[in-house]
Amino acid sequence: MSKVTIEIDSRWVKIARSPLFFIVSALQGVSVTFAPYFLYLSAKGQFVLAPERVVVPLCFVVIFLVPLSYFRLGSAVIKELRQKEIPPSPVTAPR
Q1: Under 8 Å CB-to-CB from 42, ≥6 apart: which residues?
Q2: What are phi and psi of 91, to 5 degrees?
Q3: In this structure, are residues 66 and 28 in contact, taking their beta carbons and an 8 Å threshold?
Q4: Is the pLDDT of residue 86 over 80?
């Protein structure tokens, strides 16, 4: 295994180190599990904890925008990885 150092834009470094990114990563689980479930309950009329006008748009925002932030960060990292030439790792001979 070889180590690779990549350089990404300072904007992404600030985002990845900010408390906002902690909230986004916490919402990742919500966007996968609870948001679709709340949409399902709202469609059936069984979600009574909050009005549908609030719950449904928030669910769509969480479902679509949380993964988008990961996709954008991942694409910046992958772009940088593809630009660098990774040297082959040395293979050790069996004893």
Answers
A1: 52, 55, 56, 59
A2: -100, 130
A3: yes
A4: no
